[in-house]
Each structure stands twice: as structure tokens, then as C-alpha cells.
Amino acid sequence: MLKNFALLLFSVVLGVLGQLSLKRGVMMVSSGASSGITRSLGIKSITSFLGSAVGNYYVLLGFLLYFISAMSWLIILSRVNLSIAYPMISVGYIVIVLVSKYFLHEEVTALAILGTLLICFGVFLILRSMPSG
Known about the structure:
Oligomer: single chain
Order of helices and strands: HHHHHH
Structural class: mainly alpha
Shape: globular
Helix content: over 70%
Radius of gyration: 18 Å
Number of helices: 6
Strand content: under 5%
Number of strands: 0
């Protein structure tokens, strides 16, 4: 069980790192674009933005991290009940809220913190239901 939990954690951490890398990459692309995606949702601006994003090092790194996370997820699915494994992805949501607040300096409301605490409680309950063998 400990190996499966470690693999779950590995997959979640890679997903979080992938998300952070994607965020950094698109922030770089949108700050460098003269007509960013935030100003216009036309086909031309979207394709220009996506073309720039796909060529960004951090976006590529984010996709690579997600790919490795997905490969480890396949191993997890072969070993752990989906009803146990899938809720563990929510640990990533918790980490993302904390990282967003403290490292990206995004506003995180009290309601978002309450929701995160509820997720923590739910994950705790699911972990308690895991067989010990």
C-alpha cells in the first residue's frame, strides 16, 4: 500500500508541477504579446497565442510533466481501486491553492480556503477507508 500511495503522490506532484509550468509559460507568452488573448477572442489571436505558447519552454515542460504523470497514473490504475485513486487527485487542488496564494500572489478567498479544507477532510476520510494490506 505504501508503494501505491507513493506512486499516487508522485503522479499528483508531477501534475501540480506541470500546472505551474504551464501557468508560467502562458504568463510569459501573454505578457510578451502585443495583442494578447485576454483582449480578443478572435480566431487569429487565439491561434497566434497558442502557437506562441506551444513553442514556450515552460509550456513544453508542463506537457512533459503531465505526460509522465499520466504514465504513472496508468500504473496506479492497474494497482488501486479507482474509487480510492481518483479522489487522491484532489490533493493537487490543495497544493495549487496554496502555491497560487503564496508563490503566484493570487487572491484566494475565505470561501476557497473553506472549500480546500473540505477537500482535505474528504481525502482524509478516503485514506481511512483504504485497506491496510
